[in-house]
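re: ur question from the group chat, yeah i did fold both. here u go
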Amino acid sequence: MTQIEINTDKTRLDIDFIQWFLNEQSHWAKNRTRETIEKSIKNSLCFGAYHEDKQVGFARVVSDYATFSWVCDVFSHPDYRGMGIGKKLVQAIRNHEQLQDGLMLLKTKDAHKLYSRYGNFGTPELIERFMQQKK
């Protein structure tokens, strides 16, 4: 099996790769500017997935490290799918020492099975209490 390393060192992140994926491959961030991507990385706990020092996956968590975390921008390179990268990213997030307290949320269009199996995620309790600002 191919060795995949998960790391939170932001200096290793390949911003060009992240921007390419978010703009060209994702359904949720097609119009994100490089400036916005860089700002979001700066203000988040980021997880890079690497195969032989090449970045092949990414995940980002926005958190106060006490009461709330939001998991977002989780992806793996299309050429590396089926290697468990998403699972490893979710497990790294769930096991990160600074993310053990408080509520952890995420939103997904098509990865419910991944998150429910590897992150213990499910439908939020009292969903009717959640609100969203409309743009």
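okk and heres the other one u asked abt
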Amino acid sequence: MNSTVAAAPAGAVAPAEPWPNVARAWYAVFVFAIVLMFAFIDRQIITLLVGPIKKDLGVTDTQMSLLLGFAFVMFYVVLGIPIARLADVKSRRLIIGIGVTVWSAMTAACGLAQNYSQLFVARVGVGVGEACNGPATFSMLSDYFPKEKLAKAAAVLSIGFFLGSGLALIVGGQVVQLVSGMPDITVPLLGAIHPWQVAFIAVGLPGLLVTALVSTVQEPKRRGLMAPPVGAPTRKAQAIPVRQVFGYLFDDWKCYGPMYAGMGLRSLVAFGASAWLPTFFIRTYGWTAPQVGMAVGVILLTISPLGLLTGGFLAEWYAKRGYADANMRVNLISTIAILPTSMLYPLMPTPELAIGLFAANSFLASIGPGPANAALQTITPNQMRAQATAFYLFIFNLVGYGLGPVTVAVITDYVFQAEDALRYSLAINAAVLGPIAWLIFWFGLKPYRESYLRASAHS
């Protein structure tokens, strides 16, 4: 470890002001959870529409996987870093509000697409809008809560992820059922609008109302700022050059590397599975889209939040007992625990057994996200938090959303060459990549503990 890493935290400026009012802080978490919920509704609705889109546009599983993942993350990852640099010095609330407006409008635009290319571009727009959310949100969260409370707050925030995913399946399933019997609607200049396009419009437009809700959140005072050079006057937060941020992360690569790589692999398995989950139940067990939406949606709305809260409380429990690696320890436990269930639920002989194991898998998987997100924030100086989070989300989304659906689809299309073999593709994906992810996290446990102790001056 060179002197750059060790010296920066030592010069951090401890804030003189007390932490924000608890009620105000938790209100912000509530709003951010609502924002995240709408983000995932708009992001996930397409998973219920695979069948009708393939039929109307004449595309393969692999082409469909690009809509599910790559189109979404293509500009998400490109714009993530520049937007994060703005979030490290400008109004994070404004950035989030703009993002909500963009991704909601582009989801509705998916409903106006007349061919594969237009739908692809609209999905790219959804990703552009959502690139504004993650870094700014987690940066604000770290200024609302002390580090020993951050894992719980991040876990509660992540409930929005499952609320969005669950409602996308439940409400989306009902919308699909409602519009499936509708005839095509002819719109001047646009031509025929298919029922699946109506579903996009129906879930996209309400998100525009969330922008007003974001404006009610107060921008918190930035905390854990790195000190200016010796002799220089104290200044407001200023953007740190990307090269310096990369240098900081690279100098502590034994800590940051496993965090980024491990979550990338874990997201590869998770999002590969979630993108194809409705199609898996439809192809394997003959369920309808509304059946899948209701069953999986209820699990995501009930079981997954329990897992999130368990993870937050468990990380806090470890922290109170002096474990400096509490956040990463809980994430490692979760990653190991999901190996059996993620491999086995696609192979079950009945849908009841499959959905039961999926519920167990959802609970165990949900234990990790809150502590994992808190882990990154607690060891990173304030001026770098949004950018460090953007790098994290770059890998998380590029690998998870970009490659996850494609990996599963390629196994199905080119290894088994049969649509009904999707279940084996899901199982193989989990069996190969899951163990690698937990080994990487295990390798990073000790370096994270050391970095956490060095970062104590950031608060």
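fwiw on the second one: Residues 18-217+242-458 form a domain with the Growth Hormone; Chain: A; fold (CATH 1.20.1250.20). The longest strand covers residues 185-187. idk if thats what u expected
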